[in-house]
Write a structure and sequence with these properties.
Strand content: 35-45%
Number of helices: 2
CATH class: Alpha Beta
CATH topology: Thiol Ester Dehydrase, Chain A
Radius of gyration: 15 Å
Number of domains: 1
CATH superfamily: Hotdog Thioesterase
Strand order of the largest sheet: 1-2-4-5-6-3
Helix content: 10-25%
Oligomer: single chain
Shape: globular
Number of strands: 6
Distance between the termini: 32 Å
């Protein structure tokens, strides 16, 4: 399926799409040294959130989709060299609003879960400056 949104996202920071279908996506995030917060190799939670958000946006896959709200839980730590997979599914539709469930895993262990409220706008939120 063709990607219709978030064309310029930094895939090193937010992950790489590995599967995109109608109302569904999977993102793979390879953790790097630049993401750690301490000497134990703990990865900053913002990178998990960014990957999960990107997965939600691709599950909706509309050019004008934006995040309206998120309710998330960080269940276990993500460490340097872990590969994080964010799997997103649209679970509800109401007008221009989409509710997306995202599960984040390392191997078979769920380490993140959340519900993202995505809004489809009539026009882009921002327009390029000229």
């Amino acid at each position: 399926m063709k990607i219709n949104t978030h064309f310029d996202v930094n895939r090193e920071l937010c992950g790489r799409p590995v599967r995109i279908e109608k109302d569904y996506s999977v993102i793979e995030l390879n953790t790097t040294q630049a993401m750690i917060v301490d000497s134990s190799g703990l990865i900053h939670g913002g990178f998990l959130f960014g990957s999960a958000d990107y997965a939600a946006m691709l599950a909706v896959n509309h050019p004008n989709v934006v995040l309206g709200a998120a309710d998330v839980q960080f269940l276990k730590p993500l460490k340097l060299h872990d590969v994080f997979y964010a799997e997103a599914s649209v679970i509800a539709r109401k007008g221009k609003k989409r509710t997306v469930s995202v599960s984040g895993r390392v191997k078979a262990t769920e380490i993140f879960k959340g519900t993202f409220t995505c809004l489809i706008l009539e026009e882009p939120l921002l327009t390029p400056e000229k």
